[in-house]
Write a structure and sequence with these properties.
By secondary structure, the protein is mostly helical. It is built from eight helices and two strands, in the order H-H-H-H-H-H-H-E-H-E.
């Protein structure tokens, strides 16, 4: 009934939306699935592997990452609207897409959203990582540790930086405020 009165429109092309995702069938089918990736860091690969070359050289400090999509169009368009355009509907669609993709092979013991610096949080009005983490934690029934990381300093915007520059930019920008116990 509500859909008949207020039909949803695709957030990407404006066509009639389909179900809870607010995307049309065509745009939803274009979402770049990350089916072949490193099991450790989720880096897209030509074929799935337990670890990519980078993780083999230097193992990350985490056990596994879950990224059901590659950062390409049209997903990148939704993420940009959510992160920089104040489009919370795009964020809800992203969270719904992640949930619809099925659970990761191993559920994490907790979800830890990366905090924004308070100045950036004031400008943006919300922390996009927290907004994505909330429905995921609720759906999977795992703890959301909002305060497990603390940002110690502001960092340069990452959008125009190379991978190496991004790593250097955030080095030392966070401190774990966490004793390791998951509720």
């Amino acid at each position: 009934m509500l859909d008949a009165l207020l039909p949803s429109h695709c957030l990407l092309c404006g066509a009639r939306g389909q179900g809870p995702l607010s995307l049309c069938v065509a745009c939803e089918s274009e979402m770049p699935r990350n089916d072949a990736c490193c099991a450790r860091c989720a880096l897209p690969l030509k074929s799935s592997a337990p670890m990519c070359g980078r993780c083999l050289k230097r193992e990350p400090r985490w056990d596994a990452a879950w990224a059901p999509f590659r950062y390409e169009w049209p997903l990148a368009q939704l993420e940009s609207r959510f992160k920089f355009g104040g489009d919370l509907a795009a964020g809800r669609t992203l969270a719904s897409m992640w949930l619809a993709s099925g659970p990761p092979a191993d559920l994490p013991r907790a979800i830890v959203p990366v905090p924004l610096h308070r100045a950036r949080l004031r400008r943006r009005g919300y922390n996009q990582a927290l907004e994505l983490a909330k429905p995921l934690a609720k759906h999977f029934g795992i703890p959301l540790l909002r305060d497990a990381l603390r940002r110690t300093r502001a960092t340069e915007a990452q959008t125009e930086l190379s991978a190496l520059q991004r790593r250097r930019n955030v080095r030392g920008a966070f401190v774990a405020d966490f004793d390791g116990a998951v509720p």
